[in-house]
From TrEMBL:
GO terms for molecular function: oxidoreductase activity. CDD domains: carb_red_sniffer_like_SDR_c (cd05325). This is C-factor-like. InterPro entries: Fungal_SecMetab_SDRs (IPR051468), NAD(P)-bd_dom_sf (IPR036291), SDR_fam (IPR002347). It comes from Scomber scombrus (Atlantic mackerel). Gene3D superfamilies: NAD(P)-binding Rossmann-like Domain. Transmembrane segments: none annotated. The lineage of its organism: Eukaryota, Metazoa, Chordata, Craniata, Vertebrata. It holds the Pfam family adh_short. PANTHER family: C-FACTOR, SHORT-CHAIN DEHYDROGENASE/REDUCTASE. Belongs to the short-chain dehydrogenases/reductases (SDR) family. GO terms for cellular component: cytoplasm.
Length: 257
């Protein structure tokens, strides 16, 4: 995916889109330098496929424990990653981990709301804050003008369900109100980070992966994970400062806010 080897971190890397991203990144003709594949339980049964992949690519994939709802685990992983990348920094942080609670306004519980917000919004926000020194180090090490995912970027996986403009078309089909509110918030977080940190040279964007057949997307999804990830990695590789704060789908098409 990259013109020069870069250091990448992906959250929720043990299954679904996150695992497929790890696969495609290490199998690309120009692979990554270091890939930090984060998951909640690296030694549990849900991480077996990821561990098998890491075994095939020693020295490139590091499986790291990270729970997006646990600030201590985010701080620990930031410290560990910092010690492994040094002054080269972290070039690309992908906030992929996410959860979806289904439900309308009437049946969504405060617990659904809280856990979805903690995972889908507080997680990415704490990731940005804790990994900022390593993203800044990558900007320093790169030394070139402009913005790109080879230099320093945070890409967060959002959803068309977070789009305010598209609610009328999509609400009846997928109410998932806590999920929608969380993804709208993630979009705002990204727009704010893009604005606040533009002088730092770090690019921030949100991507919609399509409706994908994963545990979350279900069997009725429109595409499989390999197609979604192929598209997203192509889009990620093409991003420049013009896309700072952008909301794009896996084909590179702007999504209405
Ligand atoms: P999956 O449900 O298949 O995978 C979700 C991943 O997130 C798992 O690795 C899961 O880990 C991880 N995760 C959940 N909660 C946490 C947490 N607290 N800390 C760390 N990791 C966590 O979903 P997808 O792969 O389909 O989705 C990936 C992203 O894409 C999500 O952000 C989702 O909202 C977004 N998306 C997906 C769409 C789709 O159609 N599939 C459509 C639009 C957006 P664990 O195994 O431990 O549960």
């Amino acid at each position: 995916m990259a013109a020069q080897p870069v250091n990448v971190l992906i959250t929720g890397a043990n299954r679904g889109l996150g695992l497929e991203m790890v696969k495609q990144m290490v199998e690309a003709p120009c692979p990554v330098r270091k890939l930090f594949a984060c998951c909640r339980d690296p030694h549990g049964p849900r991480a077996e496929a990821l561990q098998a992949l890491a075994k095939k690519h020693p020295g490139i994939i590091s499986v790291i424990r990270l729970d997006a709802t646990d600030l201590c685990s985010i701080k620990d992983s930031a410290q560990l990653v910092g010690s492994m990348v040094g002054t080269g920094g972290l070039n690309l942080l992908i906030n992929n981990a996410g959860m979806m609670a289904k439900g309308t306004l009437r049946d969504t519980t405060p617990e659904d709301m809280q856990s979805t917000f903690n995972t889908n919004v507080m997680g990415p926000m704490n990731m940005i804050k804790e990994f900022l020194p390593h993203l800044r180090a990558a900007v320093q090490a790169n030394g070139k003008p402009g913005m790109s995912c080879n230099k320093a970027a945070v890409i967060s996986i959002s959803s068309v369900l977070g789009s305010l403009d598209l609610v009328k078309q999509t609400y009846a089909l997928f109410p998932a109100i806590s999920y929608r509110i969380s993804k709208t918030s993630l979009n705002m977080l990204t727009a704010c980070a893009a604005e606040e940190l533009k002088e730092d040279g770090i690019l921030f964007s949100v991507l919609h992966p399509g409706w994908v057949r994963t545990d979350m997307g279900g069997d009725a999804g429109e595409i499989d994970a390999p197609e979604s990830v192929q598209g997203m990695l192509r889009v990620i590789a093409s991003l420049t400062e013009q896309h700072n704060g952008a909301f794009l789908d896996y084909k590179g098409k702007p999504v209405p806010w």
